[in-house]
Amino acid sequence: MSKINIDLDYTLSDNITTKGSNKMTIKEVAEKFNMTNDTLRYYEKVGLIGPIKKNSSGIRDYSEEDLRRIEFIKCMRSAGISIEVLKKYVDLYDEGENTKLKRQQLLEEEQKKLEEKIKAMTDALEKLKFKIELYKTDKLDKYL
User: Fold this and answer.
1) How many angstroms separate the first and last alpha carbons of the chain?
2) How far apart are CA 70 and CA 105, in angstroms?
3) How far is residue 127 from each of residues 114, 117, 134, 143, 144, measured CA to CA in Å?
4) How far is 68 from 81, CA to CA, in rounded Å?
5) Are 56 and 93 in contact (CB under 8 A)?
6) pLDDT tens digits for the chain (144 residues)?
7) Which of 7, 10, 19, 136 has its CA 20 to 30 A from that of 75?
8) Alpha-carbon gap, residue 139 to 131, rounded angstroms
9) Where are the alpha helices (DSSP H) in the chain?
10) Which residues pair with 62 in a beta bridge?
11) b/e per residue, 30-46, with b = 16+ CB within 10 A?
């Protein structure tokens, strides 16, 4: 299986580079992204990344392309996008250019869900601020 770049390069950090050997070990990648080795292995197992090439000693060697994909996945996971949706996206991407519209639609659906979550959280934050102000001014209301 050949390595691929995620098609959202503009979202990726400019500092995604490997060390001089152009490869990084699982430990180095885990530290770089503040993840566990187990998480990286799981992402490989479910097909979100990889398969990761291994050196002659059987140690995983992560390329810059692998790092770009990991950064994309981590970003999307932090936004609450499920493994299942990411897997669907990655599978569509791996199928090639003919899935571009499906990938776009999938991302647009996730964007809408994320915007709804952000609105709900913003509303909750405003209520929380209001309640805290009531405590500070000793003007408690009849509600919780």
Assistant:
1) 57
2) 22
3) 20, 15, 11, 12, 12
4) 17
5) no
6) 444 444 544 444 555 554 445 689 999 999 999 999 999 999 999 999 988 999 889 999 999 999 999 999 999 999 999 999 999 999 999 999 999 999 999 999 999 999 999 999 999 999 999 999 989 988 887 666
7) 19
8) 9
9) 26-33, 37-45, 64-78, 83-95, 100-136
10) 24
11) bebbebeeeebbebbee
Rounded-to-integer distance, Cα 100 and Cα 135, Å: 52
Q: What residue has token string 């050949």?
A: 2
Bridge partners, residue 9, by sequence: none
Residue ranges and CATH numbers for the domains of the chain are 9-136 (1.10.1660.10)
Residue found by looking up tokens 């915007």 in the block: 115
Q: Shortest CA distance to 104 belongs to which of 95, 92, 117, 115?
A: 92
With vertex at residue 57, the alpha carbon angle to CA 52 and CA 62, rounded to the nearest 5 degrees, is 25
Q: Compute the chain's Rg from CA coordinates.
A: 20
